[in-house]
Amino acid sequence: xxxxxxxxxxxxxxxxxxxxxxxxxxxxxxxxxxxxxxxxxxxxxxxxxxxxxxxxxxxxxxxxxxxxxxxxxxxxxxxxxxxxxxxxxxxxxxxxxxxxxxxxxxxxxxxxxxxxxxxxxxxxxxxxxxxxxxxxxxxxxxxxxxxxxxxxxxxxxxxxxxxxxxxxxxxxxxxxxxxxxxxxxxxxxxxxxxxxxxxxxxxxxxxxxxxxxxxxxxxxxxxxxxxxxxxxxxxxxxxxxxxxxxxxxxxxxxxxxxxxxxxxxxxxxxxxxxxxxxxxxxxxxxxxxxxxxxxxxxxxxxxxxxxxxxxxxxxxxxxxxxxxxxxxxxxxxxxxxxxxxxxxxxxxxxxxxxxxxx
Length: 358
Fold this sequence. Notes:
Blueprint lengths: L1 H9 L2 H28 L7 H30 L5 H32 L3 H12 L2 H27 L4 H7 L6 E12 L2 H8 L1 H21 L3 E6 L2 E7 L4 H18 L1 H8 L5 E15 L5 E5 L1 H15 L4 E4 H4 L9 E7 L8 E6 L2
Helix pairs in contact: 2-3, 3-4, 4-5, 4-6, 8-9, 9-10
């Protein structure tokens, strides 16, 4: 079992999230299809078990392919579309795919179970789907299934991977104290950039900046708490390996921006950079809200991290870390530089801060 575990560990967090989502979609769609087939008795009168096994094997494999298309490919292609347009376009593409899969099911069932030639399967397929009532029934079923699936995916992604499930299961209905690594990260020189670009273009600029930063944070297991303007608040549970993931996320974020540097220069004549403040400590996590529920984090750790991020501008250092976080991670000599005891706004006592120099 060591080899598969080792391989799985090398997969990034965002890829693991995609894999889990695709598998969930495939299992859900297959179970739904089994129920529909058994309830409506949509099986041939002979070799029912063989026909059902063949059908659901094809449905499961096809659902994996369609799930990957939905979660990864279409999400990337339609990223800049509004939600309604995205739902419609994805649903149309999935309905076309469902028709093709049904054609395959008819062909495989005819050849493997009924022993009929493929030509007869297409004739049966045409006869069944030329019935307007049956066709509308199928379309309605597929659209309901695809729209509900997409809405669940949108909800899960809206709250950051894992948060929607925590809210659904009531994990934080009673506030809990957790030790977390917290990072505040935002755009460097945001005010002059906003003045230069104007409100609409600046919004597009910020949207792209946040997208590439967030992609890196999620890839290394960061739980995005909130977006405030150009600022992202993200956290990791304080456990083995997560301090390193926090640093790797920053490195990946910088690489993402460097990779898109020409794009930003071409469209905005600006190459974006970020500043970050990192701290570790206890936070209180719990549900808040009535109409719109969400998870909130509060406590001195949050306030201190925000002050550290603010100090990065004053000390002209891109990434600042508290001593608590710095002593928690093994970095080579020269990768950090102590800036001494710094007085943070609103804090009664000074705190030793370190600049990350990688």
